[in-house]
Write a structure and sequence with these properties.
The protein has 164 residues and is an alpha+beta fold. It has helices at residues 12-25, 37-49, 97-111, 126-134; strands at residues 3-6, 54-59, 62-71, 81-88, 116-123, 138-149, 152-162. It has four helices and seven strands. The chain is globular, with a radius of gyration of 15 Å.
C-alpha cells in the first residue's frame, strides 16, 4: 500500500510528469500545453498557501499519484466549498490507489470544516465516475461540449459530496 503525505516542492517534477501524460495524450484535462516542474511547484505552493491540501501517494520512493483541493469560487459565501482533483501515474489505476488518496483528501477537508466537495471529470471517464460514486459523490450536472481538444468536443460531468 502507498503512503499518502503532503506534497512538497521536491515532488513537482514527478507530479508534472504524471499530469503532462494526461495533457498530451487525453482529454481528461483541458490544458493543452505541458506544465514545467517549476510551474507545478508554484501551483502546489498556491494551493497550500490557501490552507488547502495537496497530497501525493508514494511507494518505494516513487510518486504514484496526487490529489488536491482548490476553492470552488472566489466569492466569500463559497468559502466552505472546494473542487477536487486527482491524477494517477498511468498503469496504477484499478488498484485502490485512487480511493486511498481521495479518501485521505476528504478526511483532511472534513477536519478543516469544508462542507461541499465538487469533483469534475471530462467524459467519458468510467474510472473517475466509479471513483466518485464509490466515495458517496452524487452526479449533479453534465455540461455538454464545453471543451474542445484533440479535434473533438468534450462533455464535463460534476459530482458533489456534502461532508457532514
Amino acid at each position: 500500500m502507498a503512503t499518502v503525505r503532503a506534497a512538497t516542492s521536491a515532488d513537482a517534477a514527478a507530479i508534472a510528469a504524471i499530469y503532462n501524460h494526461y495533457v498530451a495524450r487525453t482529454v481528461i484535462t483541458f490544458e493543452e500545453e505541458e506544465v514545467p516542474a517549476q510551474a507545478m511547484a508554484a501551483r502546489i505552493a498556491d494551493v497550500q498557501a490557501q490552507d488547502l491540501p495537496w497530497l501525493v501517494a508514494q511507494q518505494d520512493g516513487a510518486v504514484l499519484g496526487y490529489s488536491y483541493a482548490s476553492r470552488w469560487k472566489a466569492r466569500s459565501a463559497y468559502r466552505f466549498s472546494v473542487e477536487t482533483t486527482i491524477y494517477l501515474r498511468p498503469g496504477h489505476e484499478g488498484r485502490g490507489l485512487g480511493k486511498q488518496l481521495y479518501s485521505a483528501l476528504l478526511d483532511i477537508l472534513k477536519a478543516k470544516g469544508i462542507h461541499a466537495v465538487i469533483g469534475g471529470a471530462a467524459q467519458p471517464n468510467p474510472a473517475s465516475v466509479a471513483l466518485h460514486e464509490s466515495l458517496g459523490f452524487a452526479r449533479v450536472a453534465t455540461f455538454r461540449q464545453v471543451g474542445f481538444k484533440h479535434g473533438g468536443w468534450v462533455d464535463v460531468a460534476y459530482w458533489q459530496l456534502v461532508l457532514a
